[in-house]
Amino acid sequence: MSFFTSLSGMKNSQTDLAVISHNIANAETTGFKKSNTAFADIIATGGSTDPRLTPGIGSSVQSITQDFALGSLVQTGRGLDVAISGDGFLATSSPTTGELTFTRNGALEVLANGSLVDTSGDIVQGFPVDANGVPTSAVPASIVIPTTNGAGAGLSNVSINQQGVVSASFSDGTSQPISQVALASFPATGGLRSIGQTKWEATANSGIAQYGNPGEGSFGAIRNGTLERSNVDLAEEMVGLLTAQRNFQANARALDTATAISQVVLNLQS
C-alpha cells in the first residue's frame, strides 16, 4: 500500500509542477490567467471500518482552478489596444463557424473587409449605436466598420474611446460611431473552459453569457491604448515550484524507504 501512496504523491507533485510551469511560461502572455492546483486525501474506509484504525492511502488532484484576478494594465499608446479594468470579457465570434469565445486580450485590429478582430482573427462583438454613440439594441453583433462613408470617402482611422464606442474616421475629415464594444460576464466565471490563445468558452458550469455596456453595473471600464498583462506573479510561482519539487523528492524518498523495507522482508523469507 505504501508504494501506491507514495506514487500518488509523486503524480500529484508532477501535476503541480506542470501547472506552475504553464503559469511561468505565460508570464508575458497578454490577458493570461494563472491556474492553481488543489489536492484531496484518499482514505481507505468503509461503513464497518473503525475510524480509529482508518489509514490514509494517498492523495488525488481535487481541482485545477483559474484565477481571474486583474493583471497589471500597461499603456501601449496604440489606438486599437483595449483593456478591461474590472470584470468582464470581450466576446468574439469565429468568422467561419460563428462560435462565440471570450477573451481578456484586447490587442485588436481591423481587416481589409472592415471586421474588427482579435489576435486569433475572431470578430469582436458589439452593440449597434445611433449617431450619438448610444446603443440601440441589447443584442450584440459582429463589429464591421464600413470602408467608405456615404460620400465615398475611404476609411482612414478607427478608434475606441473610454466608453467602448468604436468610431470610424474617413479621408474627407468626417467621423461616425459604428458600435459599442459589448462585455460579457458569467454567473460562475470559474466554470469557463480554457481553450488556449487566452480564450475561454462557456460551459454548463459557467452559465450563459450576460452582456452589458462597459462601466455599467458589474462590468469593468474600458481603458483604450492599454493592454492587460498576465496576472502571474513570478516570485510566487518560483516559491511554488520549489515546494512542488520538494514534495516530489519527499515522496520519492518514501518510495525508496518502502522498497528497502520490502527488500529486507524478502531477504528474511529467503
Question: SSE layout and pairings?
Answer:
Elements: H1 2-25, E1 35-43, E2 56-66, E3 73-75, E4 82-85, E5 89-93, E6 100-103, E7 109-110, E8 116-117, E9 123-128, E10 141-142, E11 155-160, E12 165-170, E13 175-181, E14 183-185, E15 193-196, E16 199-201, E17 210-212, E18 221-224, E19 226-228, H2 234-269
Antiparallel strand pairs: 1-2, 3-19, 4-18, 5-6, 5-9, 5-14, 6-16, 7-8, 9-10, 9-13, 11-12, 12-13, 14-17, 15-16
Helix pairs in contact: 1-2
General description of the model:
There is one protein chain. A hairpin with a 2-residue loop joins strand 15 (193-196) and strand 16. This protein folds into 2 domains: 2-69 and 232-269, no CATH class; 73-228, no CATH class. The longest helix has 36 residues, at 234-269. Helix 1 packs antiparallel against helix 2. It has helices spanning 2-25, 234-269; strands spanning 35-43, 56-66, 73-75, 82-85, 89-93, 100-103, 109-110, 116-117, 123-128, 141-142, 155-160, 165-170, 175-181, 183-185, 193-196, 199-201, 210-212, 221-224, 226-228. The strands form 5 sheets. Strands 5, 6, 9, 10, 11, 12, 13, 14, 15, 16 and 17 form an 11-stranded antiparallel sheet that branches. The chain has a two-stranded antiparallel ribbon with strand order 1-2. With 270 residues, it is an alpha+beta fold. Residues 83-168 form the Flagellar hook protein FlgE/F/G-like D1 domain.
